[in-house]
Design a protein that fits this description.
This protein is mostly helical. The protein is built from 9 helices and no strands. The N and C termini lie far apart (40 Å).
Length: 183
């Protein structure tokens, strides 16, 4: 990824970043089926230069929102289970935004980073209480890629299932790693 102002200590950069992310959430909540960079800029009340000093485009912004949504890998002290419902709800909350993002070709770097974020989160659930902090396993990466692929198809309306049905599918995919009963 290219250097950006996202990690700047400058409070103005932090406010601009917050405006951008808030705009995405507000546009998604308004029910827009498509969200563009121009929409985000207009809604956030910022200029193009300000947006592009933080993100190269929607793909990079989506990875940032995705990472914020899933946060850091769960600690053993975290009592929120990683379920299909929790994963799908994070996408559903910003469905219009993610639907727009998945309709444009993503770089392999962005896609791989998203898969790794989810795999680490899945891994932290399956490793909870072991005190280990390790890289995601091949199984975790494969399952995360499958989950993201299924959710992307749902976002693009290529599969016609309810949010609950998709959550159940995701639960079944992660159950072998998390030990959470998918029934």
């Amino acid at each position: 990824m290219r250097p950006t102002r996202r990690d700047s200590a400058d409070p103005r950069a932090a406010r601009t970043l917050e405006k951008i992310v808030d705009a995405v959430h507000e546009l998604a909540e308004a029910g827009n089926r498509s969200i563009t960079v121009a929409d985000v800029i207009r809604h956030a009340g910022i200029g193009k230069t300000a947006f592009y000093s933080h993100f190269s485009g929607l793909s990079e912004l989506s990875l940032h929102v995705f990472n914020q949504s899933f946060g850091t890998p769960r600690s053993s002290a975290d009592d929120e289970p990683l379920t299909g419902e929790a994963i799908v709800a994070r996408y559903a909350a910003n469905r219009a935004f993610y639907a727009t993002v998945v309709s444009v070709p993503l770089t392999s770097e962005i896609m791989s980073a998203g898969i790794k974020i989810l795999a680490e989160r899945i891994g932290s659930v399956s490793d909870a209480g072991t005190g280990t902090d390790k890289a995601p396993s091949a199984a975790q990466l494969i399952i995360a890629a499958g989950i993201i692929g299924a959710i992307n198809a749902w976002l693009r309306y290529e599969i016609s299932v309810t949010e609950q049905e998709l959550s159940t599918w995701v639960d079944r995919m992660i159950a072998p790693l998390t030990g959470i009963d998918s029934a």
